[in-house]
Amino acid sequence: MTQAPRSGSGRNRAGRNPATDSAGKSGRDAGSAKSARTGGGFAGSKSAGAPRGAGAPKRDGAPRGAGAPKRDGASWGAGAPKRDGAPRRAGAPKRDGAPRGAGAPKRDGASWGSGAPKRDGAPRGADAPKGGASKGAPKAARSGQRGASAGAAPFGKERFGRNLGAVHRPRRPKAPPVDRLDVHNPEGVRLQKIMASAGVASRRVCEDMIRDGRVEVDGTIVTDLGVRVDPSSAAIHVDGIRLQLNETMVYYAFNKPKGVVSTMEDPEGRPCISDFLKNRKGERLFHIGRLDAATEGLLLLTNDGELTNRLTHPSFEVPKTYLVQVRGPMAHGIGAQMKEGIELEDGIASVDSFKLVDSTPGHVLVEVVLHSGRNRVVRRLFDAVGHPVERLVRTQFGPIRVGDQRQGSIRVLGRQEVGHLLAAVEM
User: Which of 239, 258, 281 is the last residue of a domain?
Assistant: First the structure.
């Protein structure tokens, strides 16, 4: 005989003992009868004195076994709804009705599996882009560049010198990339290794530069990574910048003060360039061009004789920039007159550019650019128009600027600056 529950909850609302009730016994044996009695899926409750075994109802009349609802009518087993009626197992929606298993969307409809979208609807699998770009795609596709280092500036990590960018030379028809046999020297050194040793960039970036057609050897574009060249004879350009591979060559920028003569030694004992060389007195240097003793500014020094000859030869027309202070005011039309040309004792001389920089009561500051290398030509030009020079400073020679360099100091030119200087005279 079945023992009735001890608690008061063992009796149903009618006060009967379900243990002896044949209808309650049949209700325990058949779930259909329980469903018909409660209308909630399963009849009976723990308070009615039903046993807790498999298929027995738990408080709310729902059996605890497989397929039985948990409090709110959601079953525990596979495919059983969880609170909101959605099944928990594979393929079953998670709270929001979206299945959690493979191929099922995660919260916002993006599935976890391969090829499934990740929140924003973009698939996350092998073929899915991450952050809008394909994972397997090259970096160029993501960055919009041709390669991983496309656009990398040569000598970008150089500590000394100034960044002058690429050399902008007159446009000319580009020769197609040549076969490696035309410039290849089996006894030479790999091109990318030479570039890396010259400080252009890392070897990997240099390889990308070669692939992108940014490197020329002896005037022809090379795109083959297997090319070997002789560094002692090959002329290598990167973005138009010539690589100086001769480590014995030195290049300096000297900001000459007023009163210093442009010579290495002066028999009259006046201050000269060698007085500022200090530890460099043992080097044999040439000064590129001259500045008279009263003129200040940029003076280039080097032991490269070929470069010195080209920079001073009038056929290359290397521009030089000067700041000129004269007595003011200056009459209108002086600049146009100097651009057209003024007759001097040694022929007609002109300026390439004339620009008024500043004007104060009694003084005018003018910037002029000219390529002529005649003796004292700037002073003679201003004397001819009735404005004698009060102060004259050279601020730029070709691509090299004096900038904020301290007067009387000497600095080493960077490799990029040297490359621009060599390219300016077609070296």
Answer: 239
Give the model confidence (pLDDT) of 369-413 as tens digits.
Answer: 999 888 999 999 999 999 999 999 999 999 999 999 999 999 999
DSSP state at residue 241: E
268-274 CB contacts, 8 Å cutoff, 24+ apart: 273/299, 273/301
CATH number, domain of 191, equals 3.10.290.10
Q: What angle do CA 404, 406, 365 make, to 5 degrees?
A: 60
Residue 110 falls inside a structural domain:
no
pTM: 0.61
In-domain check, residue 288 = no
Rounded Cα gap, residues 219 and 167, in angstroms: 14
Q: Is residue 376 within 8 Å of 384, Cβ to Cβ?
A: no
Number of domains in the chain: 3
Active site (annotated) includes residue 404: no
The residue segments making up the domain with residue 36 are 8-75
Per annotation, catalytic residue among 29, 230, 292, 346: 292
Q: Find all residues with CB under 8 Å of 277, minimum gap 6, and list them.
A: 283, 285, 410
